[in-house]
Amino acid sequence: MLIAAGFFVFFCSAFSLFAMTPADSAAVHPAARPLDRNDYKTLGLAALGGTLEFYDFVIFVFFAVTLGHLFFPPSMPGWLVQLQTLGIFAAGYLARPVGGIIIAHFGDKLGRKKMFTLSILLMSVPTFVIGVMPTYASIGIAAPLLLLAMRVLQGAAIGGEMPGAWVFVAEHVPANRYGFGIGTLTAGITGGILLGSLIAIFINRTFAPEEILNYAWRIPFIIGGVFGFVSVYLRRFLGETPVFKELAAKRALARELPVKTVLREHRQACLVTAGMTWSLSTAVVVLILMTPTLLQTQYGISIPSSLVANCVATLMLTLGCVLFGWLTDKIGTRPTLVVGWGGLAIASYWFFANLPGITHESLVFHYGLVGLFCGVIATMPIVGTRAFPPAIRFSGLSFAYNVAYAIFGGFTPVLTQLWLQQDRMAAAYYVGGVSILAILIGLIPLAAFGWKPVREEDARPA
Predict the structure, then answer these.
(1) Which of 107, 148, 178, 351 has its CA 20 to 30 A from that of 156?
(2) Which residues of 255-283 are buried (b: 16+ CB within 10 A; e: fewer)?
(3) CB atoms within 10 A of CB 422
(4) Burial of 162 by CB count in 10 Å (0-12 exposed, 13-18 middle, 19+ buried)?
(5) 247 pLDDT band (50/70/90 cuts)?
(6) What percent of the chain has pLDDT above 90?
(7) Can you tell me the mean pLDDT for 10-25?
(8) Res. 267: pLDDT tops 50
(9) Max CA-CA distance within the chain?
(10) C-alpha dihedral (330, 331, 335, 337), degrees to nearest 10
């Protein structure tokens, strides 16, 4: 009851504190128009492509144990095999900044659509190759080296795909549907985690362990590659963004290396975007990717129960992205940041505090609530795409997001695991800390530091 009362007081306070004046509302809702058929087609194809591409990126982690057995010498100690396998997985994160910067450079120079299509092709090919490549038993040490190379290509692709997708949608949808558009796309991207989880569950329930080791592990990767090739074809039907076409017509494209302009003139915007990325990466890595393992190892919850609860949480995350994106259009970005990140901090604490001895039904409910509030991660690209001017928007967002994700996404699991050795509530405290960071970003008058968000209506054709 006390927790429920806390939720009620919190929401009432947030809405009363950030109730918008008519002037605020006008700033959030410029030149309103409803979404048309082309908008829905763009959102649908972009979100579907994001789902399939992120599935390709995360399916590796669901089969990490199997890949470790198949791609390293049988004589290698188990702990070293897992360390090497996770190292190959992490290589994908380290490759994100390089791939993101290169793809974004040409996205600002040659067009959003071309790079939007290239990124998914760059993901599909290595995913398919992993599904058909020989293992250590066939080609020896070349197997893990080839697996590493494919993982690096996947990382480079996802580094360009996510910022590119956000920019592509942001420059297509009408200004008064800005948050909904980006929230829907982000929901599609997070849906890739759910799809990977469901297929992993299907494979493990359909095939015996020996069959998975022999051939069934290949199925998810081959499916992912085929999905990607289909997405490449579907993206042919998307048009270039109106903002980029206007920039090209006015010869207003970046005249120098875009990332050079970003580092010289937009450092404050980079810091803001990086701070929001820290919050986003923590919510995804700790609450969605790490928590199923924590439930099993720290709290003795069964594997089936933790996987089912995680699927529910991931589904709620997908729905939450649309919800919080829609909220930014209705009440503004600042109050949405406070409501969403504040709610996530409270829901996470409530979840972890109630874990000892929790029933399956309560686990699913509490974890689902956490997943719903995790949807506030959609505010990161909403803030990030508005932080940079159109001529270098792709490069600015890609640089700040990918570098921050490589840093924070890399040390977050290690920091959390070390902290958990001292305090079982460490995950809740860490999530609460980065939630406060995101709220502060929404509250601090950033213009005082020289940061001036770009008004979308100024960047659009009349």
Answers:
(1) 178
(2) eeebbebbeeebeebbbbbbbbbbbbbbb
(3) 8
(4) buried
(5) low
(6) 30
(7) 35
(8) yes
(9) 70
(10) 10
Full-model pTM: 0.80
The pLDDT assigned to 249 comes to: 64
- 369 or 52, greater pLDDT: 369
DSSP collapsed to 3 states, the chain? CHHHHHHHHHHHHHHHHCCCCHHHHHHHCCCCCCCCHHHHHHHHHHHHHHHHHHHHHHHHHHCHHHHHHHHCCCCCCHHHHHHHHHHHHHHHHHCHHHHHHHHHHHHHHHCHHHHHHHHHHHHHHHHHHHHHCCCHHHHCCHHHHHHHHHHHHHHHHHHHHHHHHHHHHHCCCCHHHHHHHHHHHHHHHHHHHHHHHHHHHHHHHHCCHHHHHHHHCHHHHHHHHHHHHHHHHHHHHCCCCHHHHHHHHCCCCCCCCHHHHHHHHCHHHHHHHHHHHHHHHHHHHHHHHHHHHHHHHHHCCCHHHHHHHHHHHHHHHHHHHHHHHHHHHHHCHHHHHHHHHHHHHHHHHHHHHCCCCCCHHHHHHHHHHHHHHHHHHHHHHHHHHHCCCHHHHHHHHHHHHHHHHHHHHHHHHHHHHHHHCCCCCHHHHHHHHHHHHHHHHHHCCHHHHCCCCCCHHHHCCC
- 8 Å CB contact between 385 and 393: yes
CB atoms within 10 A of CB 121: 15
pLDDT at 45: 77
Ramachandran quadrant class, 332 (left: phi over 0; alpha: psi -120 to 50; beta: rest): left
Higher-pLDDT residue of 41 and 330 is: 330
